[in-house]
Amino acid sequence: MRYEYELDFEVRDYECDLQGIVNNAVYLHYLEHSRHKYLLSKGIDFAKMHEEGKDLVVVRVEADYKSPLKSGDRFVVRLNVSKEGRLRMVFHQDIYRLPDEKLVLKAKTLGVCLLNGRPVVAEEVERALFS
């Protein structure tokens, strides 16, 4: 599969639980950080949008854990983005351990833009991601 964006990481000791593997909740941080970096690479400025009363928010995350990561493991988060309906952005994100490319996690994250608490189409996001 071809991906629009990817970001490399390395597991830090404090991200692991007593079993010596990355805690399930930490994967959500990896996914979020890669989405933010992707959006920044597309020129989407969260701070500016927030000042205008617009906030990009996650409304749903589906994550299928396939294989654990351990302290010191290198890995990559790869993503694609698509539309679902008029308002929802869908981030398809996969995590692979490096260098063997073993699939660690498959995730689908749905997001919307809120303007004063109501879902809206953010024109700057539409232009940056879908035109």
TrEMBL record:
Signal peptide positions (record): none
SUPFAM superfamilies listed in its UniProt record: Thioesterase/thiol ester dehydrase-isomerase
Keyword Kinase among UniProt keywords: no
Annotated PANTHER family: 4-HYDROXYBENZOYL-COA THIOESTERASE FAMILY MEMBER, NOVEL THIOESTERASE SUPERFAMILY DOMAIN AND SAPOSIN A-TYPE DOMAIN CONTAINING PROTEIN (0610012H03RIK)
UniProt-listed Pfam families: 4HBT_2
CDD domains cross-referenced by the UniProt entry: 4HBT (cd00586)
Similarity remark: Belongs to the 4-hydroxybenzoyl-CoA thioesterase family.
Gene3D superfamilies: Hotdog Thioesterase
Name of the protein described by the UniProt record: Acyl-CoA thioesterase
Organism: Heliobacterium chlorum
Database matches in InterPro entries: 4-hydroxybenzoyl-CoA_TE, HotDog_dom_sf, YbgC/YbaW
